Amino acid sequence: MSGNTGDDGRSVTSRVLGILDAFDIEHPRLTLSDIARRASLSLTTAHRLVGELTEWRALERGEDGRYSIGLRLWEAGLLGPLHTRLREIAMPFLQGLYEATRENVHLAVRDGNEALYVEKLSGHRSVPIVSRTGGRLPLHTTGVGKALLAWETCDHVDQYLAHPLARLTRYSISEPGRLRKDLQRIRSRGYATTQEEMTLGNCSVACPILDAEGRPIAAVGVVVHTVRVEPDRLAPPILAAAKGIADRLAAAGDDPYPGYVHDLDLTKRMRRRS
Amino acid sequence: MSGNTGDDGRSVTSRVLGILDAFDIEHPRLTLSDIARRASLSLTTAHRLVGELTEWRALERGEDGRYSIGLRLWEAGLLGPLHTRLREIAMPFLQGLYEATRENVHLAVRDGNEALYVEKLSGHRSVPIVSRTGGRLPLHTTGVGKALLAWETCDHVDQYLAHPLARLTRYSISEPGRLRKDLQRIRSRGYATTQEEMTLGNCSVACPILDAEGRPIAAVGVVVHTVRVEPDRLAPPILAAAKGIADRLAAAGDDPYPGYVHDLDLTKRMRRRS
DNA sequence: ACAGTTCTTCCACTCAGCGGAAGGCCGACG
DNA sequence: CGTCGGCCTTCCGCTGAGTGGAAGAACTGT
């Protein structure tokens, strides 16, 4: 850009993205000074960039002067394939799973070494749970995570096992050898289970959504309270949902928004008016 | 910025946001040239900015070379209050409504002169519908829209009626007088209905979620096929859900993420490991 | 009254960002 | 099998948009 002093090779774009990076689930609302500090920007620069972002509504300013992620950014994010394609196709199946179980239903993808939760459905009767839509959890302590890992290539598994495995409860599998054995069993059985490996008192059953080449695209899972768990009863509907989603995904090809047919007509109708 | 020629006062930030603006639901996947054209950027500039955005994963590049909205942007958008606060609190109530009706369940807020859909639940048995999470529809042709408008201040209503009212079906209310009367009836009855005003064959029932001052924060609604409609039977559970959400919102105060209690502990536990 | 925040505005310096040009790659058409 | 018209990518010299310091306003708690 320009500037008179201490300019490390950062571009304006990287600064803008750094501002977005300043927000996370533990810091969803920040003051201007917070943002400047967390993004390593001078207050002046933060002030100007945040001002522009706020005008576009990428950020919004609350009554207390603090900033949070804005409406437009939320809206833009929902145009991504994770939402318009994967979630759109999966949703009816997830609802079906919810109706059948009334428990927490999850849809997740693998991103790096974490399970990224694309959708989470839960009602009043479901067990309270740490996952959230847009959240991340370890692969080896969650049902969906283990389902994603088990069908991954050996290289990926090796790479994952090379890092230390977080032990979140006393039941978490933190030894590479035991995890490898568990993944083996999961693959042969067709679905993954966890028993209080993420949270004491909670268990889960999950299975992968595979593409035509057998690679795991995503995983569907259900989390229940330990006393209610019956994997044999839970697995069949989850397997069916995963199969259903996989088939619909394959059928949709690379259509970016499979559920959008006559909406095109609608937008035309709406446009004609204005 | 800088640059040697034709530089209208656009900032780098505005260009970056212009790139995001180039994507919409009808154009979720764009080539670099598409982006440059739609955002009025030179190909060179688009190339550089898109490159930076892709590196951060605000955008992602498909196998065919086209760009779409990336994972990180989706993730960032979900940190906004619409998702972490409103949706988080509303979700169990929406699920309850879905269980009770098995129809399309909507949660929407007003943004400008449109209803912005924050959440949409639908199963296999639900009527196919044009709404989508993150989508926008007119206020006067949708149940949630009318519910939002009916409790709005007179000024807002006047302002809305000043613009022409899109007539999307032959049953859409496009005369300001008739709409005003309808809103009056909605307010006195406590909930809104539509009868094929958005889509032929579909009807809806919706009611507002009001804050302590009686202002409409959001609206919950259900869309059903005309032959199945029984507003008197649908209204009570919807009213109850709206009331429940309103109470929980009021109880949460301005806690940015009311459903997040012991997750803080979890992230600490996860961090300790790495 | 004071020390500590916060946010905002002003300003002169300068390098990051700009777009044109040129070249490579692909598929379509004649 | 050239040629055209799309794409995308890299290179390069010019320059004004972006920079951070300084100064001060506003607000808070002590």
TrEMBL record, chains A, B:
Does Cytoplasm count among this protein's keywords?
no
Q: What is this protein called?
A: IclR family transcriptional regulator
Where do the HTH iclR-type domain residues begin and end? 10-71
**Ranges where the IclR-ED domain occurs:** 72-251
Q: Does the keyword Zinc apply?
A: no
GO function term, MF aspect, one: DNA-binding transcription factor activity
Q: Which UniProt keywords apply?
A: DNA-binding, Transcription, Transcription regulation
